[in-house]
Write a structure and sequence with these properties.
The chain is 3% helix and 41% strand. The protein is mainly β and 332 residues long. It folds into two domains: 167 residues, Sandwich (Jelly Rolls); 128 residues, Sandwich (Immunoglobulin-like), CATH 2.60.40.10. Strand 15 and strand 16 form a beta hairpin.
Amino acid sequence: MRVRIASSLVAALALFALSASAEVLTNPGFSAGGPPSSVTGTPLGGPSAAPPWTTWNNSAATTTTEHLANFQGRSGVIHVTTTGALNGLVQVWAPFNTGPSKVTHTANIWVARGKVCMGTGNGGNTGCSASTRGARKWERIRGVNTVCPANETIIYSEGGPAEYYVDMASVNVVSQRPCPPPGGQGQPDLIVTEYGFKGPAAPDPGNCRPGGAVYIFGVTVKNVGTAPSPSSAALGNKALVQVMSQDKPGWGNGMMLNALAPGASQTVDVLVYYLQADPQFMWTPPDVSHPFLAIADPLKLVAESNEANNTKGPINMGKPQGCPPLMPRPPL
């Protein structure tokens, strides 16, 4: 999730020097607005309607923003719409590999549809640690950074497309204790060593119906780093391995992993379910080919010595076994 915008750094660093507990974001209340923005593609970033906030797409999508003077009883609000998961607002408030070791982040969010999350981390190694729970009401979410040091804050769609409004975001420093130095020493490194299709396949009739698993993949993740990797449980029960379609954003699944000591591996079965939102996409045309990529640490929650070796594949899959489903015969 990398974004590199330098325009906000001077003001943010000046605030940072004033007090260890000072607000580090610029335009945290979205009082300053600009023209609407739109960005399409991945990985791709652009401006937002509330500078120096920017936008970033981690999945193939269109993300738009507009600044509103008033919305639902609040003044100075940014409206964000995105057609994919893990896309939205970003603010880089300190240089990469610098910043405090611990911060708290808070945001007031009104969700029209979907789910929204917030996180703070180190440049591209930034994942979410706070999420909305409801919709069509103002909700305050809170969390802490899961990666050290902290220098970038995100407010993203979570799990799929979303439309949301934000009228306040805040990041405050808790500790400036030194972080472990970046690099290959003392860091985990998660890679996918084995990735394969397990079924269903003929003569199995398949399970082409809502709620059924249409593909099952076996994935082995190994820690080839020099320090243990955290468990999914320690990261808020987030998936640490994922199999995701590359031609349909959001079609796939993720699984949690245990903590892995250096050299240890874990193998999981990842079930990809019937695509209820667009069933015909699975089998149209008859010779369709769906590329599925295996991804270790898909949300970039683990501070790894190598962030560029997390994927394997893709595996190109034909239409799922048993699709399209047989239609019941009409009564005589």
